[in-house]
Amino acid sequence: MASEVLAKPQMRGLLARRLRIHMVGAFLVSLGVAALYKFAVAEPRKKAYADFYKNYSPEKDFEEMKKAGIFRSIKVGANKRSEEQQKQMVFLKRVPKGFVSVLG
């Protein structure tokens, strides 16, 4: 039997070297997951919201819900304002908040 000399294992600094390698790997994996989430989840979600609100009308939606009877405090035929009331509402929307208490 020929005795072969085995190379000594590196003991000093082994943990620091392995930790450095694993930290770089973890950083790269986290960047990949963040990019995957952004382009696979966040961007399509933003696009879906933008498409929905592009043609969304809250007044139309309110009227449909009112006709369906969702609101218990509003009767189906109620809430029709006269022209004078509508003009007053438009005027009050333009007046700053501090003046409303003086006018009311």
Automatic annotation (TrEMBL):
Its main location: mitochondrion. Keywords: Membrane, Mitochondrion, Mitochondrion inner membrane, Transmembrane, Transmembrane helix. Pathway: Energy metabolism; oxidative phosphorylation. Pfam families: COX6C (PF02937). It is a single-pass membrane protein. The chain crosses the membrane at residues 21-40. It comes from the Eukaryota. It is found in: Mitochondrion inner membrane. Component of the cytochrome c oxidase (complex IV, CIV), a multisubunit enzyme composed of 14 subunits. The complex is composed of a catalytic core of 3 subunits MT-CO1, MT-CO2 and MT-CO3, encoded in the mitochondrial DNA, and 11 supernumerary subunits COX4I, COX5A, COX5B, COX6A, COX6B, COX6C, COX7A, COX7B, COX7C, COX8 and NDUFA4, which are encoded in the nuclear genome. Component of the cytochrome c oxidase, the last enzyme in the mitochondrial electron transport chain which drives oxidative phosphorylation. The respiratory chain contains 3 multisubunit complexes succinate dehydrogenase (complex II, CII), ubiquinol-cytochrome c oxidoreductase (cytochrome b-c1 complex, complex III, CIII) and cytochrome c oxidase (complex IV, CIV), that cooperate to transfer electrons derived from NADH and succinate to molecular oxygen, creating an electrochemical gradient over the inner membrane that drives transmembrane transport and the ATP synthase. Belongs to the cytochrome c oxidase subunit 6c family. This is Cytochrome c oxidase subunit 6C. It comes from Saguinus oedipus. The gene is COX6C_3.
